[in-house]
């Protein structure tokens, strides 16, 4: 970049927006326009929706994305890039008084003639991809919630119903199209820019703007899935069934599991989503779950699109949201104790206006970990983990900003107490799943020093001036500065 660039400042962002209106005409929106207001409302969390950029840019092509980025970089205007906008905290894919580059118009989807690779524009959400592939009896390793963005989920890892056989979403990417710091468009894959390819598989937004992902594609018909609700008093039986599943999952990697406990309309309930990627109504891997009396169930043979739409209803937008996460060695007693800590701390916030606290427990099985080494491996730092691991996500939605401090403090206490306890039992794992992490959690320290250092090296090579670290401040950074 030229040394004649302006000094950083908000006034520059207004000038940058003026120039973008000339260059991109109808693709730039200011706060007074109805289009701007509509785009702001498309974020999942209210914290993100309340973050107000100086202008929003909706490019129609990778070249227009590059133009928007280059203008922001020249004027040293802070910017954010929005894919699906499903992060919880303010600034993740939004920017106060800066420029938000919204990728929603990069929404093309096409499968190749061999039906083994699908090219997906980075502005798609998973529902768009699945509605395209499901009628063709095809699938990709992708998200389980329909309105989550393709690019954000994949850059952070991306847990999938197919992970037992195929790894996480990042492991299913065969090529990234990406705009680097010089404003040029590149490809990254196992043969071209392989270090960048490795870094993008879990390295987040630290390296450029991904404009297209080419995803490994495979045949997929109907499958088992849905939600089953239990009384909270079934928690001990559910933990026993969970342990049985984790112990035996490597024998049947077509199975997936999400175990959650939530406070809904004044009542604690247990909720289990078990999915099976074949159309089999009663897979033996879930026998211990099937033996537990239920309150309600939507389990059925259906398609992937239908299942992701259903799961979206359990985490609706239009509220304040927070996530916070930690990872542990699998241990039945620890699991029960973490649950008890959660109940105790949530007693302090469960009665707040609109509050809906939940704890979600998911295994990172040996079968999943075995996939993390394929195609040169990913950046997550888990390839050598012995497994199985237990991933905890503490998720809370609520209504009033007045309650923010109390809710953030309570959720943080759950994780701090759980991690401290696990460390005394040598059951804590350093890994922090980026897509569930709270603002302030050190995601890349959780990947381990070897992975973090390699990520920093890739950043230094492809972004020598640190544009993505300095001018795109949102989300999680590898720690160069």
Topology:
Blueprint: H1 10-24, E1 28-29, H2 34-40, H3 46-49, E2 55-57, H4 62-74, E3 79-82, E4 99-102, E5 109-111, E6 117-121, H5 126-133, E7 138-140, H6 150-155, H7 163-166, E8 173-179, E9 185-188, H8 194-200, E10 209-219, E11 223-225, E12 227-231, H9 235-248, E13 255-264, E14 267-276, H10 287-290, E15 296-297, E16 300-302, H11 304-312, E17 320-329, H12 332-346, E18 356-364, H13 366-370, E19 389-398, H14 404-424, E20 428-429, H15 449-462, H16 467-470
Parallel strand pairs: 2-4, 3-4
Antiparallel strand pairs: 1-2, 5-6, 6-10, 7-10, 8-9, 8-10, 11-16, 12-14, 12-15, 13-14, 13-18, 17-19, 17-20, 18-19
Helix pairs in contact: 1-4, 5-11, 12-14
TL;DR?
With 481 residues, the chain is of the alpha+beta class. The protein has helices spanning 10-24, 34-40, 46-49, 62-74, 126-133, 150-155, 163-166, 194-200, 235-248, 287-290, 304-312, 332-346, 366-370, 404-424, 449-462, 467-470; strands at residues 28-29, 55-57, 79-82, 99-102, 109-111, 117-121, 138-140, 173-179, 185-188, 209-219, 223-225, 227-231, 255-264, 267-276, 296-297, 300-302, 320-329, 356-364, 389-398, 428-429.
Distance between the termini: 19 Å
Average pLDDT rating: 96
Q: Catalogue the unreliable spans.
A: none
Share of residues in helices: 25-40%
Helix/strand class: alpha+beta
Number of helices: 16
């Amino acid at each position: 970049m030229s040394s004649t660039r302006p000094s950083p400042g908000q006034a520059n962002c207004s000038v940058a927006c003026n120039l973008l209106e000339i260059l991109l005409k109808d693709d730039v929106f200011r706060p007074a326009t109805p289009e701007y207001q509509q785009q702001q409302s498309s974020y999942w969390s209210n914290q993100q929706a309340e973050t107000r950029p100086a202008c929003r840019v909706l490019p129609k092509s990778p070249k227009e994305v590059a133009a928007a980025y280059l203008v922001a970089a020249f004027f040293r205007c802070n910017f954010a890039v929005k894919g699906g906008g499903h992060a919880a905290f303010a600034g993740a894919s939004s920017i106060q008084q800066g420029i938000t580059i919204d990728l929603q118009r990069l929404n093309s989807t096409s499968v190749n003639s061999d039906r083994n690779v699908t090219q997906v524009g980075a502005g798609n959400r998973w529902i768009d991809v699945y509605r395209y592939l499901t009628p063709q009896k095809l699938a990709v390793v992708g998200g389980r919630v329909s309105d989550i963005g393709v690019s954000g989920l994949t850059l952070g890892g991306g847990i999938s119903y197919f992970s037992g056989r195929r790894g996480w979403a990042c492991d299913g990417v065969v090529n990234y199209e990406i705009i680097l710091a010089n404003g040029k468009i590149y490809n990254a894959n196992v043969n071209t820019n392989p270090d960048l390819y490795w870094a993008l598989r879990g390295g987040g937004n630290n390296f450029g703007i991904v404009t297209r992902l080419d995803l490994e594609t495979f045949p997929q018909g109907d499958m088992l899935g849905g939600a089953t609700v239990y009384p909270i008093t079934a928690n001990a039986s559910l933990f026993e069934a969970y342990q049985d599943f984790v112990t035996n999952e490597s024998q049947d990697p077509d199975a997936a599991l999400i175990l959650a406990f939530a406070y809904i309309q004044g009542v604690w309930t247990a909720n289990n989503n078990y999915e099976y990627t074949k159309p089999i109504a009663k897979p033996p891997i879930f026998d211990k779950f099937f033996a537990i009396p239920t309150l309600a169930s939507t389990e059925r043979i259906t398609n992937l699109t239908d299942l992701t739409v259903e799961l979206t209803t359990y985490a609706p937008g239009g509220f304040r949201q927070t996530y916070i996460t930690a990872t542990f060695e699998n241990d039945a007693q620890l699991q029960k104790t973490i649950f008890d800590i959660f109940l105790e701390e949530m007693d302090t916030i469960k009665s707040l206006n609109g509050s809906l606290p939940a704890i979600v427990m998911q295994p990172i099985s040996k079968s999943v970990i075995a996939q993390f080494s394929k195609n040169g491996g990913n950046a997550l730092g888990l390839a050598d983990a012995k497994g199985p691991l237990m991933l905890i996500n503490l998720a809370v939605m609520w209504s009033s900003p007045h309650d923010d401090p109390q809710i953030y403090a309570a959720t943080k206490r759950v994780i701090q107490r759980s991690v401290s306890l696990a460390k005394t039992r040598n059951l804590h794992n350093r890994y922090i799943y980026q897509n569930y992490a709270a603002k302030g959690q050190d995601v890349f320290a959780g990947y381990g020093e070897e992975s973090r250092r390699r990520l920093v090296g890739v950043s230094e090579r492809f972004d020598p001036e640190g544009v993505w670290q300095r001018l795109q401040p949102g989300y999680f950074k590898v720690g160069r500065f």
